[in-house]
Amino acid sequence: MDTMRERFTSVTSRLLDEDPRLAVVLADISADRFAGAAERHPDRVVNVGIREQLLVGVGGGLALTGLRPILHTFASFLVERPFEQVKLDFGHQGVGGVLVSAGASYDWPSGGFTHMAPGDVALLDTLDGWTVHVPGHPDEAETLLRHAAAAGDDKVYVRLSLQVNDAPRPVDGTGFHTVRQGRRGVVVAVGPMLDNVLAATEGLDVTVLYATTVRPFDAASLRAATGAANASDVVVVEPYLAGTSTRFANDALADRAHRVLGLGVGRQELRRYGQLDEHLAAHGLDPHGLRERIAGFLRGRS
């Protein structure tokens, strides 16, 4: 199976052939994978080198000309390092584009903390109007990328990762989807966390919702799931900073008695490189760690 990043480069190269409004802006990362597209469309594939602020600035400038820019590099260099440019060159200027990241929270641990971005979605939450997609499988990434490319002048962030679920689920770029139904609580599994959540909740009487589009937050589906189950306990499991979406869940259920537990990447920096699976376990996001915390949270109500 190809990776999400490999799927992104192949699909986007084809989209450049199909849609003359699209342009791609790179900062060296994945530039080799766009070599063919750059030969065919030299005016719409731009590599600015290792200049991430310029990457975003060029993307904003292309959007002002009427193009639909797709910007790509590691999440830490796409959202965190050039955040001022994201805020001003897209938000303040009132233009749209697609930010497609790689690396996620800790896909490449040996790259060190400079290449980790567990706070990217929380940072974008400080801005208005961003749609955020977090696919859990390359097939889902392709669907959401095509949706983002065709999304008019909207501002869209697509968060790619090496962590994937075994099988794709139907996604449509909008709300949450019910994967399992129960009556003791609702667990929202975001993107590549789904398989671990399903393993962790095996035998527990809970509803599992699958979220690949997390912004806008699907308050209606969460309300419907908690209402159908007559459940007041909600757990949100995210592959980035713990608690990023808890305020949205609390807002969705503000008129009901409820509890919300946010599970995700902890704030403490893990200074040993390790591997992706070791980081998941250290943050309690492997099936064992999730089982302990979800079951313990549900027992706290009984």
Index terms:
single chain; 302 residues; alpha/beta; Rossmann fold; 2 domains; seven-stranded mixed sheet; globular
Structural write-up:
With 302 residues, the chain is an alpha/beta fold. The protein folds into 2 domains: 156 residues, Thiamin diphosphate (ThDP)-binding fold, Pyr/PP domains (Rossmann fold, 3-Layer(aba) Sandwich); 123 residues, Rossmann fold. 37% of the residues lie in helices and 21% in strands. The chain contains 12 helices and 12 strands. The strands form 2 sheets. A 7-stranded mixed beta sheet has the order 2-1-3-4-6-5-10, with helices on both faces. Strands 7-9-8-11-12 form a 5-stranded mixed beta sheet, sandwiched between helices. Strand 1, helix 2 and strand 2 form a beta-alpha-beta unit. Helix 1 packs parallel to helix 7. The longest helix is centred in the first third of the chain and has 15 residues. The chain is globular. The protein starts with a helix and ends with a helix.
